[in-house]
Amino acid sequence: MRKKKKTDQPEKKRKKKELASAIIQFLNENPDKQYNYKQISAALEVSAEEQRTTLRDVLDKLRDDELVLETQRGKYKTNDRKPILEGRFERRSNGKNFFVPNDEGNIVYIPERNSMHAMNGDIVRIQMFAKRKRFETEGEVIEILKRAEARFVGTLEVKKDFAFLVLDSRILANDIFIPKENLKGGKTGDKVVVEIVEWPAKANNPLGKVLDVLGEAGHNDTEMHAILAQYNLPYVYPKEVEKAAEKISADITPQEIAKREDFRDILTFTIDPADAKDFDDALSIKQLTNTSWEIGVHIADVTHYVKPGDIIDTEAQERATSVYLVDRTIPMLPERLSNELCSLRPNEEKLCFSVIFEINDKGHVIKHRIAKTVINSDLRMSYEEAQSMIETEMGTYSKEVVTMNNLAKQLRERRFTNGAINFERFEVRFNLDDKGKPLGVYFTESKEANHLIEEFML
Q: Which 3-state string (H, E, C) describes 207-236?
């Protein structure tokens, strides 16, 4: 028997993952041919019996996961129908990456090493892997089809030769490097909005530029703007939208009033939180007989001022809703509309869209109509003021408020008797100082004054 020379090296033991990649690469390079495991072993220079057994196990696994095809017993070829999917890349708050397919199938785990620098919201194409222990399915991004808007919020750190953004969230795995010429005046400790401009294929970190310096981190106003920027909530209106809103006339012509039902001489009031800045709904009441009343529910007629497809309407559609933060509101409409023209402030003529119904003392609606109206609110009340009227039956218009509350209670009782679900819960509110710093937390309780408004709005 020949004695093994010292220079002879034992065959290197290859891991299953390495073997799987080598098998797939070999079969992909020979797509029109099929091979048995001995031929594949020879091609991959696998000769040790232990390694050939491992190779057989790997082939079985690749076949089961449809990454290779067994065309006939013991013969394998590349799978031209590899499971390749298109969908959305998601990075969760825990730092894990997932793929959500377009066909609403099962989500797929994407390890960071296989993410191809995909970012949250990107539309990508992935190739499926074999099943792993922790996740039912796993894959690799093979192509980024469409980038999501690559804007991020964080705290700036400026060094001698470069700067980088420390992100507020884990939506990106790596910090963003920023050339010093792209800082836009930002300095260490500033909250900034940064846009990624490049991510070289072999680089761990993307390159970005500062779009907006929000202010020094930790200041209330800065942090509020950071929240809005992080969730892509626009807190500044485009100048052209503001200009269009300012041009809208506040005058209500006699011709416009003539087209509408006139409620200016009917008792009308608003009930809102004490700190409300705008009042977009109102109630009116008129006694018809000893046992019946006419109730009007009025909301501001925005359609008189904003026309479908105009610049203000387009901006409102983009925003979709007003956003309420602890210390401020970001309105869907410019302030000229939300706080002025469409705010049902007392002692001002306002155009409304209204539902008017006749209701008896048993809380039964006799009839109703829907109409465009003009109103003039007599009183702006807070919930606390209205509640005091209900409890003490004292104050201006307390008789009417108590009457409406009694009607609302009957409507509410009948609604729950008919199977309505009660979603009532405590609301968390904050006491703030003049700089917006929280001083304390308290809970607000929904009382009869709140229910009064809710019932008539329903």
A: EEEEEEEEEECCCHHHHHHHHHHHCCCCCC
Q: Is domain 84-146 in CATH 2.40.50.140, yes or no?
A: yes
Instruction: Give the closest residue to 310 by CA, choosing from 256, 241, 394, 232.
Output: 241
How many angstroms separate the CA atoms of 278 and 341, rounded? 10
Distance CA 398, CA 210 (A): 57
The secondary structure of residue 4, as a DSSP letter, is: P
3-class secondary-structure state, position 163: strand
416 residue type, one letter = F
Residue-level pLDDT at 137: 75
Domain 16-78 has CATH 1.20.120: no
Confidence (pTM): 0.68
Q: pLDDT digit string (tens) for 406-433? A: 998 988 888 888 887 877 777 788 888 8
Pairing of strands 261-262, 365-376: parallel
The dotted CATH code for 151-230 is: 2.40.50.700
The residue assigned the tokens 């309407």 is 313
- 151-230 has the same fold as 16-78: no
Find where tokens 């199977």 sit: 419
d(CA 52, CA 37): 8
Tell which phi-psi region holds residue 362, choosing left (phi > 0), alpha (psi between -120 and 50) or beta: alpha
Q: What is the pLDDT of residues 105-146, one digit of tens each?
A: 778 888 888 888 888 889 998 887 655 555 567 888 888 899
Residue type for 403, please? T
